[in-house]
Design goal:
By secondary structure, the protein is an alpha+beta fold. The chain contains 6 helices and 9 strands, in the order ββααβββαβααβββα. α1 (about 30-45) packs across α2. About 30% of the residues are buried. InterPro entries: CRISPR-assoc_prot_Cas5, CRISPR-assoc_prot_Cas5_N, CRISPR-assoc_prot_CasD. Pfam families: Cas_Cas5d. This is Type I-E CRISPR-associated protein Cas5/CasD.
């Protein structure tokens, strides 16, 4: 199996799995439907192309939380463009300064196609919401590996300031949310398996999510400070200088 590895970093991200009506929440990590939607945009799929979507949705998905970010709330007001009447007040939630590594496992040739599409996307890419463009190139690499091994091997993608903030840790433990392998015990259930993005009948199915952790090196770890007692104290005898003068 091969794995396509992505870096999802932006000032703002929003990954809603159950957001409806005037309250649009965000999950703490990218959703599979959100990432699949981004890949569909890169390929230029129509919203009602359910056959093309099913090929993407069949990929096994996992995500590593490299920098969790901060949840922020945006309060919005609007008026109808024609009547001028006030629209319902709405709340929208975002993740600020977050960084994730997402991985999709599948057949190598198809993942190479997706990797190429991300480098020259047909439609603009965004991280969960149209107001959230990525700050850095999304595509990292394709690996000949399992999904979990790819998430374990990828270097830590957190910002430099965040890596320095955890500079006392030579290795950091990062949370991983992934789909289980066949025969593995299932974890949490999330309505996040895209079936159709068509505006008239947008549909999602349930999928299982297993939570684990991986250990990765911190490239900005600082060497531990040596206690003063561990340094040899140089000999100091003030009368040595006096004795040299009298000789």
């Amino acid at each position: 199996m091969s794995v396509l590895v992505l870096r999802l970093a932006a000032p703002l991200q929003a990954w809603g799995a159950s957001a409806r009506f005037v309250r649009r929440t965000t999950e703490s990590a990218p959703t599979k439907s959100g990432v699949i939607g981004m890949l569909a945009a890169a390929q230029g799929l129509d919203r009602d192309d359910d056959a093309g979507l099913s090929r993407l949705a069949a990929l096994r998905f996992g995500v590593r939380i490299d920098q969790p970010g901060t949840r922020v709330r945006d309060f919005q007001t609007a008026h109808h463009a024609v009547t001028g009447k006030s629209m319902p007040l709405s709340e929208r939630f975002y993740l600020a300064d977050a960084v994730f590594v997402a991985a999709l496992e599948g057949e190598g040739a198809f993942l190479d196609e997706l990797h190429t599409a991300l480098r020259a996307p047909v439609h603009p890419l965004f991280l969960g919401r149209r107001s959230c463009p990525p700050a850095l190139p999304v595509e990292l690499a394709t690996r000949d590996s399992s999904l979990l091994q790819a998430l374990r091997d990828e270097p830590w993608q957190a910002s430099g300031w965040y890596q320095r903030l955890r500079g006392k840790e030579h290795t950091v433990s990062l949370s991983v949310l992934r789909e289980p392998v066949q025969g593995e015990e299932h974890g949490d259930i999330l309505r996040d398996q895209p079936l159709s993005f068509a505006a008239a009948h947008r549909r999602h199915a349930l999928r299982s999510v297993v939570s684990t952790t991986v250990e990765v090196p911190n490239p900005r770890a600082v060497a531990p400070r040596v206690p003063a007692a561990a340094h040899p104290v140089p000999r100091h005898e003030p009368f040595d200088a006096v004795e040299e003068e009298t000789l």
